[in-house]
Amino acid sequence: MSTESDIREFLASRRAKVTPRQAGLPAYGGNRRVPGLRREEVAMLAGVSVDYYVRLERGHLAGASEEVLDAVAGALQLDEAERAHLYDLARAVARRPARRPTRSRGPLPDSVLRVLDSMTDSPAFIRNGRLDILAVNRLGRALYAPLYTEDAPRPVNVARFQFLDPHGRDFFPDWEQSVNTTVSLLRTEAGRAPGDRDLTGLIGELVTRSEEFRTAWAQHNVRLHHTGRKAFRHPVVGQIALDFDAMELPAQPGLTLTAYSADPDTPAHEALQLLAAWAATTDASTTADPDRTSSR
3-state SS string over 30-80? Predict the structure, then answer.
């Protein structure tokens, strides 16, 4: 899809989510032909002409000022992730570089890998925006063991496993929430890096082969993924729900380190200890893991 199409569908989908009541507008009668706000209502709330807003929603964000984008974001009640996505789309259609350092390519620095390996009590991994796992510590590889089959393509990709592997649904028990998170992260990355051919290829593969992905992708949801809780159904330790924290690596633009943890003296913490004991008896060490040097 073109960036203009993405803009059109993103703005239309956000407009459909805001009711006149939520926007503080009177709703005369019950016969509204569109869900949410009308274009003229968004234009009024944003302080622009109807013709100009219609042009924006048709994908013509090039030339729109920051003030206009902020006004549209306010009218549509966009959250932080949606607002950032709108700016990414505007930069993409204007062919302007994003306000972030160029994503680096090549092997991860040894210092980053040492930090990852030092996290012995927490499953942890480093991923890019496409959800490729580029490096993982021993406990992290044990947690994600179903993804690391001998015939799995490298680097391991969370989205490809989730939607295309027959074990994906079993591994992620909170299926609907997990699907929404995965697709929203890829949609966010698509706005940040519209020229990423590997990302475009991945999305094309998933749209073609997975109806569930295709349906979720059409919703145009985006999100920032910094902290929360994620559930797994592990073949060795059973179901386990872990807290996670995701931290961007400033010296490695586009990469994120995610670490899982559990409160002490809880079933999840006991499951982590069991997972660590199992990992110690398997070849789960990533000392010579080829994923460490995968290109990004």
Answer: CCCCCCCCCHHHHHHHHCCCHHHHHHHHCCCCCCCCHHHHHHHHHHCCCCH
- Contact indicator for 205, 160 with CB cutoff of 8 Å: yes
The arithmetic mean of pLDDT across residues 199-228, rounded, is 96
Residue 251, pLDDT > 60, answer yes
What pLDDT score does 28 carry? 63
Kindly state the DSSP code that residue 253 receives in the 8-state scheme: T
Strand partners, 228: 244
**64 alpha-carbon distance from chain centroid:** 26
How far apart, in whole angstroms, are the C-alpha atoms of residue 245 and residue 281? 27
Closest listed residue to residue 121, CA positions, set 269, 283, 234: 269
pLDDT mean over 276-280: 93
Structure tokens belonging to residue 244: 């996670």
pLDDT of residue 29 exceeding 60: no
d(CA 147, CA 68): 44
Q: Which of 8-12, 170-174, 283-287 has the lowest mean pLDDT?
A: 283-287
CB contact at 8 A, 25 and 41: yes
pLDDT at 97 > cutoff 90 = no
Q: Using 50, 70 and 90 to split pLDDT, how confident is the model at 288?
A: very low
Do residues 75 and 52 touch, judged by C-beta distance below 8 A? Answer: no
Short-list 255, 268, 106, CA closest to 192: 255
Alpha-carbon span 230 to 290, nearest angstrom: 26
Query: Is residue 157 exposed (0-12), middle (13-18) or buried (19+ Cβ within 10 Å)?
Result: buried
DSSP H helical ranges for the chain: 3-17, 20-23, 39-46, 50-57, 66-75, 80-93, 110-118, 138-143, 158-164, 168-171, 175-192, 197-209, 211-217, 267-280
Q: What number of other Cβ atoms are within 10 A of residue 201's Cβ?
A: 11
